[in-house]
Amino acid sequence: MDIKQLIYLCNLERERHFGRAAEASFVSQPTLSMRLKNLEKELGLNLINRGNNFEGFTAEGLRVLSWAREIVAVYEGLKLEVESLKQGMSGTLRIGVMPQCSVSLARLIKAVSQAHPGLDYRVSEVSADQLIEALSSHSVDVGIGFFEFSTLNELRFQLVSLDDGGVDVVYHPDHFPELDNVGLMTAEQAAALPLCLSEPSRYFRRYLDNFFRQAGLELHPRLESTSIFQLMQGVFVGIGCALVPSGHLIDEMHPALKRCPLDITPMTRHAALVVAEPGRATALAQHFFTAAGLWLTQQQPLAPPSTIK
Predict the structure, then answer these.
(1) What is the C-alpha to C-alpha distance for residues 212 and 206, in angstroms, rounded to an integer?
(2) Which of 55, 93, 171, 308 could form a disulfide with 176 if both were Cys (CB 3.0 to 4.6 A apart)?
(3) Could you tell me the pTM of the whole model?
(4) Is residue 45 located within the same domain as residue 8?
(5) Where are the beta strands (DSSP E) in the chain?
(6) Which residues contact 232 (CB under 8 A, 6 or more apart)?
């Protein structure tokens, strides 16, 4: 057994197709198939359900695959660590982020880049459960999202809390001029609006749905999307208003839009930037964590919601 066979196995899981997995592995399809068959022979197990095409993994294959993912993630982390030792503080940092978190990741990266200009970044959007798993298996170096602190303490992650500035209602004044006179929007007022919202599977959306449900109200999304870009376009043309965490958007990118705060109870989970415990975090992750934490603590409290100019 060697690391390449495990990489091929992980690529097959991701691509769900032998040909595409071979392309992702930079080998021919016969080579990939042969190496995976050799792995099965060495382990004495059938890992893959084969027909005319890839038909998934056997029960034994899924167990082996879970180990392969972790081993490959640690291997990739080791390569990054070695590269940083050879070249100094440079390399690619892998960041997993939950959608609609209460910080602008781009601004955070820009601030850290002032201290560590040699860092590059690969950002993946993941769900809450996926983020904990990715951090635990070292498939991402840094996580940004909403967490239960008891879980983080149990897993011994380092964390920097992110300020919870609440939720803003973002709107275009040409389409919703009546909102200009609203100082603090009530749940009843928000529930009466047509809305542009993230999909119901997202943690932030579940938080919103639970709050309004407990208040005996129901949200009316006119547009749902996993794409923040699509939601903001919907707000701009007047399809509806958006509910977003304060601090998530870069205000200057949306000069035509305005926002007002929503009267809503805080989330039960806490927004945080997270890395593995000292000694387990890679050098790149630890330096990013330190620089990011310094920048976050230096930020002034969020100004009262107003025009996004």
Answers:
(1) 10
(2) 171
(3) 0.67
(4) yes
(5) 48-50, 54-57, 91-97, 119-125, 142-147, 158-161, 167-171, 194-198, 220-225, 241-245, 258-262, 270-275
(6) 170, 196, 242, 249, 254, 257
Report the alpha-carbon distance of residue 217 to residue 211 in Å, rounded: 9
Q: Identify whether 307 is part of a domain.
A: no
CATH number reported for the structural domain that contains residue 32 in this entry: 1.10.10.10
Q: Are 261 and 130 in contact (CB under 8 A)?
A: no
Together in a domain, 119 and 153: yes
CA distance 113 to 163: 21
What is the residue range of 191's domain? 167-262
Question: How many whole angstroms separate alpha carbon 99 and alpha carbon 201?
Answer: 11
pLDDT digits (tens, 9 = 90+) for 182-222: 989 999 999 999 999 999 988 899 999 999 999 999 999 99
Q: Output the domain CATH number for residue 134.
A: 3.40.190.10
Asked whether residue 58 is domain-assigned, the answer is yes
Q: What DSSP state is assigned to residue 210? A: H
270: CB partners within 8 A, 6+ apart = 146, 147, 148, 149, 161, 162, 164
Is the per-residue pLDDT at 90 higher than 80? Answer: no
* pLDDT > 50? residue 300: no
The amino acid sitting at 227 is S
